[in-house]
Amino acid sequence: MKTWILTFGLGLIATLQAQENQDASSIWYLKAVVADKGLPKTEESVSVTPMAIRTLEGGNLEVEFSVLVRGQCHNVSTILEKTDQPDKFTAYGGKHVVYIIPSSVEDHYILYSEAKWSRHQTRMAKLMGRDPEVQQEALEDLAKVAEARGLDADSIVIPRQRGACSPESS
Q1: Is 79 helix (H, G, I), strand (E, B) or coil?
Q2: Helix, strand, or coil (residue 83)
Q3: What is the DSSP string of 120-156?
Q4: How many CB atoms sit inside 10 A of residue 163's CB?
Q5: CA angle 149–16–142, rounded 5-degree value
Q6: Closest CA to 42 of 162, 138, 156, 167
Q7: With contact defined as beta carbons under 8 Å apart, do 12 and 126 qualify?
């Protein structure tokens, strides 16, 4: 679960710098996600809070979000480091790599991530946007990216949006 939460959240961070030299600091929403393993299959199983993302000096990204695990809220904050490749960021000494792919829908991006945690490797694609509404065209873009990278587009999950992390809002 902890691996999944970190992978899930880190992908959101990279949304900030979708284009070189663009300050994408704002609130972002995870609209849909697909992974090679480990995702709950129902909307009721997955709920997310908005993420605050901030562009730091040098192009690195800071992300802050909250997760509810076993009835407890946990605040998460981490840094994604800019690489020489404009659409690529890393975290945790390169163990987590995130690629940013623009969607055909304005203010939407697909984040493809690969993470290595201990003996586990996870691949995910996430649809991010600046508002919580899911748009069909952007969802279709996510499906295309997922399939191109060997993920099952039929396993896309659309999480329930929550305003804040609290046991009552799960």
Answers
A1: strand
A2: coil
A3: EEEEEEEEEESSS---HHHHHHHHHHHHHTT--GGG-
A4: 9
A5: 30
A6: 156
A7: yes
Give residues with Cβ within 8 angstroms of 83, minimum separation 6: 89, 90
Domain ranges, ordered by start, for the chain: 26-161
What CATH superfamily classification does 26-161 receive? Calycin beta-barrel core domain (2.40.128.20)
CA-to-CA separations, 4 to 17, 38, 69, 84, in angstroms, rounded? 22, 7, 12, 27
Q: With cut-offs at 50, 70 and 90, classify the pLDDT of residue 6.
A: very low
Q: What is the pTM of this model?
A: 0.79
Distance CA 43, CA 166 (A): 18
Where do the DSSP E strands lie in the chain? Answer: 26-35, 47-48, 51-55, 61-69, 72-82, 88-91, 96-102, 108-117, 120-129, 160-161
What average pLDDT does range 54-60 have in this prediction?
A: 88
